[in-house]
Each structure stands twice: as structure tokens, then as C-alpha cells.
Write a structure and sequence with these properties.
heterodimer, A: 92 residues, mainly alpha, 4 helices, flat, B: 131 residues, 2 domains, elongated, disordered C terminus
């Protein structure tokens, strides 16, 4: 049961990877990267259950935090052309 | 005997989650546009991930594992819409247009001007979308 779910998640991640490679714009690739990150969290949790080692869940939590922080950083970079350091320096 | 009921419930949740994940992944490859692709991806990212995590909660029982899974679920449910909003706002600001923007009379994009409208309508007829 868990192995079947793991294979389903891996298949979904492979399909999303096709979109990440094909995507016409950067935002398509970024959307696919976000989905792949969510799939990786599920793979970590499911693998922890499969091998009876639930400490993989901590890795999953950390991966979720890093994934979203990374997505926002890249989005801000593509929106402003930089990470916004000089804009805040101009303001002050 | 009492052990098999949570197994069946967890299996049902995991199966439903796998279905939604695969549906979202297939939709991401078939949709014609960035914004429709975001719609397809949100199916997999909310329903698929939540159902799979709920299935693992049922499988885990009342342990620390369940608490961690619920924290993960709450975090994903908070951050998924925020990331989608930021992605759509950044894409609109960078000039990515929805291909159906010129089709509606008044409900389209505010800044969609004439020459863009024509090409957008042509793309929409070839893409085949909603009326």
C-alpha cells in the first residue's frame, strides 16, 4: 500500500518534471519546481513509513520550509530584477 | 481484527491522494496556459498532499509522528495559496498574459489593449478553452 503510493508520487513527480523541462516561461518552471518540492516532502514521509523510520519526517518539515523560502526568493528576484537590497537602501 | 480498520482507511486516503496527485500532474502537462496550469497544480498541491498526509496520520496513530504530520499539513495549507498568489502576481507583472484575456467583453484584463487582444483571441481559438 505504502509502496504503491510511493510509486504514484514518483510518477506524478516525473510528469511534473516534463513540464519543468518544457515550460515556455520561467514561471512555468517555477510552478513545476514547487510541485516537485511538495512531491519530495511526500516521498520523504512515505519512505519513512515504508522503512519504519519516522525521523524522515523532520527532514520533510525542513524541506518544506526551505522549499517555500526558495520559491519566494526566486520569485522576488524575477519580479524586481534583484533581491531588493538596493531598493530598500534607496528608501532609507 | 481491530488492526485492519485503520489500514483500510489509510489505504483509501492514500489512494485518493495518489489519484489527485496524478490528475494534477497530467493537467499540468495538458493545460494551454500558465494560469490554467497553476489551477491544475493547485489540485495536486492541496488535495493530493493533504489526503496523503491524512492517510499517514491514520496509519501513524497517536504518536509524535502524527503531530509532525499535522504540523506539515498546516504549513502546506498555509503556504500553498501564498506561493500561488505570489507566482501569479509576479507572472502578471512580468507580462505573461492569460490567453483568454481578450475574449470576455468587460471581465478581461484591465490593461489588455487592442493589438494584443487579436493575437490572444487567435491563440484561444487554437488552444480551445472555456467560452
Amino acid at each position: 500500500m505504502i509502496a504503491a503510493a510511493l510509486f504514484a508520487v514518483l510518477a506524478a513527480m516525473a510528469l511534473v518534471l516534463v513540464r519543468a523541462l518544457r515550460g515556455p516561461t520561467t514561471f512555468d518552471r517555477l510552478l513545476a519546481a514547487n510541485s516537485i518540492g511538495n512531491g519530495a516532502i511526500l516521498v520523504l514521509a512515505l519512505f519513512g513509513f515504508l522503512t519504519d523510520r519516522p525521523e524522515f519526517l523532520d527532514l520533510g518539515l525542513t524541506y518544506a520550509l526551505l522549499n517555500y523560502v526558495g520559491i519566494f526568493a526566486v520569485l522576488k528576484f524575477f519580479r524586481l530584477g534583484s533581491l531588493g537590497a538596493e531598493a530598500e537602501a534607496d528608501k532609507s | 481484527m481491530m488492526d485492519i480498520v485503520p489500514q483500510i482507511v489509510a489505504g483509501a486516503f492514500l489512494f485518493a491522494g495518489a489519484f489527485f496527485l496524478l490528475a494534477g500532474a497530467i493537467g499540468m502537462n495538458r493545460m494551454p496556459d500558465l494560469f490554467t496550469r497553476m489551477h491544475a497544480a493547485s489540485v495536486g498541491d492541496t488535495l493530493g498532499v493533504s489526503l496523503m498526509l491524512i492517510g499517514m496520520v491514520v496509519l501513524g496513530g497517536f504518536t509524535l509522528v502524527t503531530v509532525k504530520l499535522l504540523f506539515l499539513l498546516a504549513f502546506l495549507l498555509f503556504m500553498g495559496p501564498v506561493a500561488s498568489h505570489a507566482l501569479a502576481a509576479a507572472a502578471l507583472k512580468a507580462g505573461v498574459k492569460p490567453i483568454l484575456a481578450g475574449k470576455q467583453a468587460g471581465g478581461g484584463k484591465a490593461e489588455g489593449h487592442k493589438p494584443r487582444k487579436k493575437s490572444a483571441a487567435r491563440a484561444a481559438t487554437s488552444g480551445g478553452g472555456k467560452p
